[in-house]
Every structure is written in structure tokens, then in C-alpha cells.
Amino acid sequence: MIAAVLLGAPGSGRAQTPMASDSVRAPALFTYRDAVLAAGFAGATVAMFPLDRSVARRLQNPSVQSNRFFTNGATDLRLVADPGGLIVGLSAYGVGRVARWKNVADLGLHTVEALSVAGLTTVIFDGLIGRARPFVVGDTNSTDFHFGHGFGNHDRQSFPSGHATSGFAFASTFTSESARWWPHATWIVGPLMYGAATLSGFSRMYDDRHWASDIISGAAIGTFAGIKVVRYNHRHPSNMIDRFFLGSMVEAGSHGDVKAGFSFTY
User: Fold this and answer.
1) CATH number for the segment(s) 27-249
2) According to the model, what pLDDT value does residue 240 have?
3) Which residue has the higher pLDDT, 2 or 122?
4) Which of 159, 129, 177, 131 is nearest to 220 (CA)?
């Protein structure tokens, strides 16, 4: 995946010919499609509440839990979402700045921004909603909510899922950014990224850490965080964060070292 990004990146982070997608007026930050998507996520979350217990019960069946493939896969997928997304974001930013690949630096910076926005939103909701995790109450009480009890209490930070939020924030950022400079591959990138994020969320249910509705709500937050961060930054290319971090001067020295500095004249 990263190799595809690097191969699709331009060779310089300096003046470049505007791409076709950049020459078209960017869409509004909030659109009618956003409202439809939000309504779909909200409806799916509510519809899943009555099914949370039965889904949890099936996944915690001893025959399912004893499957080594599922167990190992759940661990790997959990790490892919968190801290995998952050590691990829920071790495892409560093590589983009050193190699002067603006698109890769954009991807890395905006990934970290989206993860930060999604993470903060999740912390707030987890604390306010105070839903008990499945392993705390078993599969008998999926409606154990206590307003405000999630702050500082890991056992009551189930809704929404932080791993699902991170996974979908990374997926939506990666898909949105790559669509700007690699549009013909969106039909491949999108399903791969969102599919991996979905499996990551599924792994959290398998590990008995979240209900199914937690995953859907986390997917909603992460998806919107990625889409909005990318859309905002490309509508406001001179915003302070982009000017500072994308204007930083990072380059390889003549003796294999790395030189760094900062500029607001990117």
C-alpha cells in the first residue's frame, strides 16, 4: 500500500503543475451527501442496538474463540488500526518531507490530523456516554449506559470504539487523498482501506471489547474525520497547520544526515 503511494507521488514538493482535481472548485465542507451518510450511520447504529447481544453471544462461542486463525488475526488487525495508522501517517510525512513528495507529505500530515480529531471526539463520547464493555457485563446487558461515568474508567469506554474510529479515519483520509492524485485507482484503494478498517472493528468484537453498535458509531466518526480534514485542508491550503508542517524544510544531507528547519513560505 505504501509502495503504491510512493510510486504515485510526484518527484518534487516545490512548484508543481496543478492536477485536474485541483483545478476544479472544491466541494463545500458540508454537503447534502454528508447528511445522507450521517443519517445512514445513525440509522445503522440504532438498528444494531437490539442485535448487540446476539452478535456478542455468537462471537464468544467457545468454538469460535478457540480458532487460532481468528485469534491471531484479531490481534494483527487491532494493531493495524492503532497504532498502525499513526505510524503510517508519521512515516509518510517524514518520507514526503525528506524526498520532497508533496502528496505523500499531505497524506501523512492529514492522516495524523484526522486521527487526532477522531481520537478526541471518541474520548469525549466515551466519557459522556459511559457504556459498559461486553466483557464487563457479559452478553446479557448491552444497554448499560451511565452518563459521564466513562471518564477515567476504561471499563465504561465502549461507545464508540476507538479502534474503529482510528481505522476508518485512516481509511477515509488515505482514500480521499489518493483520489486527488490517483483517481483511477479509487475503486481499488477504497474497498481495500475500508475493508481493512471494517475487519479491524470486527476484531474488537471478537476480543469482547466492543458491541457491534460501538463499531458502527466509531466508523461514522472516523469516516467523517478523515473526509472533513482532507476537504478542509484542500479548501484552505494556506491554513496555519499546513503552512507550518508542510513548509518545514527537511532534506537529506551530503553525509547521510538529515537537516531540518521551518518556513512559512511553502
Assistant:
1) 1.20.144
2) 83
3) 122
4) 159
